Amino acid sequence: MPPQSLKIDNARYIITVDPERRIIQDGSILVENGSVSRVGKAAALANARADRVIDARNLVVTPGFLNGHMHISYAHAVRGIFPDNLGSPLSHVFKLQMAMTEEEEHATTLLGLVELVKNGTVCFVDPGSTKFPDACLQAYQDAGIRVILGDCVTDQDAPFPLPRYSTAEAVTRTTSFLKKWQGRLDGRIYAWAMPFSAETCSADLLRQLKRVADERHTCLTLHHNSGPQARKDSQARNGHTPTEYLESIGVLGPNVVLAHSLGVDDAEIECLARTGATVAMCPVTAAKGGRGVAEFGRMPELLAKRVKVALGCDSPNNSNHLDIVRAMNMAAIQYKDARQDMRLVPAESALEMATLIGAQALGVADEIGSIETGKRADLVLFDTQRPEWQALFNPVNNLVYNADGRSVHTVIVDGRVVVDAYHQSFVDEPKLYARVQEIGEKLQARTGTTFPRSRWQIV
Ligand SMILES: [Zn+2]
């Protein structure tokens, strides 16, 4: 049970991301019944008592991070197996994912949760990769973090194996998933409609799923990209660009989150701004996958049009890590290089996407995303007693450019301490690592997925 009250006392800095974007030096936060009840200068909260007090003199506090697109499943067991000269690993990815057993998925999910939470993530969107959510429920509960789940559906042919149903069946599955999962674990489980993409789903299916999401006051997410070839294909298929097509069939709106969204042109950005649809961009996946951020990355234009952008890590074989601090870093540096303009995507914007703007993109900003009285207490405490945090004058710059998730010291979700001075207590990590390694070996053998262990000889 979480203590009734918790005080984070005398923090070196509190980066609130509140409406005034205050950074409070020597600040304190009082948490009662899972919510922030007071936040301000330590001196002003000197008389506030709590069941537990965390001495935060050497800590920098931020809101908990959101990960807007994060496949948590098979990939942990086979992370890093694809050599760089393979090109796209997608066909292998879906084959491996479809071959996971319930027990295997539970173990890889646990590992994903450990990595997410230890890097400061308090809420993530799994875009329908989890095949056995029932088996993972206990893990979600134990880890204590917020999980956005759904049932990945398609009703059209796809170039790789995906869950394929009739249109009616896909709608029924989604409706029953939402009924079963929305609001579980004291509201920390959110259930969304999750069609895979516009290319693998009929207009009829997308329309019906949007209606279901609207009726149940929840969201819909799908994979989305544009660019010259995608625009040409889409024009030939339905007479619209990929984004305008979604608008034309009534599928865009503030409760729709488009993942990746590379290559959108100005008219498509206008369309997103007009409809209030949001995006979840995966900057490390884009860079590692050679997706051409210079040509196709439009983050600065999306932000300029006030489209809500969340950051994501995609999967442990795309970005290869689940560290949103590194995703912030990539978001803040890749446009500066791509456009040869250091003013683009400043550190503050990167932090906003991982916190408040990300929460707005995912429809949860009433609860989390900033440190304000009345919001749920989802907080990350960074340890500044580390070389990369020296010297400390500008905490936002230090966080985005110097640090990474390894300096996450303590993580609080809903007022509960889920990482306490670098330690989580919901799983035996060495035992789990050994089990996941074993799963990876078996999974590769079972699916006939073999790659040289390294391009260099292992002797
Ligand atoms: Zn994805």
Q: How would you characterize this protein structure?
A:
The protein is α/β, with parallel strands linked by helices and 459 residues long. 37% of the residues lie in helices and 20% in strands. The chain contains 17 helices and 18 strands. It has helices at residues 90-98, 102-118, 133-143, 167-181, 184-187, 203-215, 228-238, 242-248, 266-275, 283-288, 293-296, 299-304, 324-338, 347-354, 356-361, 395-402, 429-447; strands at residues 5-15, 23-32, 35-41, 52-55, 59-63, 65-67, 121-125, 146-149, 152-153, 189-191, 194-195, 220-225, 256-262, 278-281, 309-311, 379-383, 408-413, 416-419. Strands 1, 2, 3, 4, 5, 16, 17 and 18 form an eight-stranded mixed sheet that branches. It has a four-stranded parallel sheet with strand order 6-7-8-10. Helix 2 crosses helix 17 (429-447), helix 8 (242-248) runs parallel beside helix 9 and helix 13 (324-338) crosses helix 14. The radius of gyration is 21 Å and the shape is globular. The N and C termini lie far apart (50 Å). The protein binds zinc ion. Zinc ion binds next to loops.
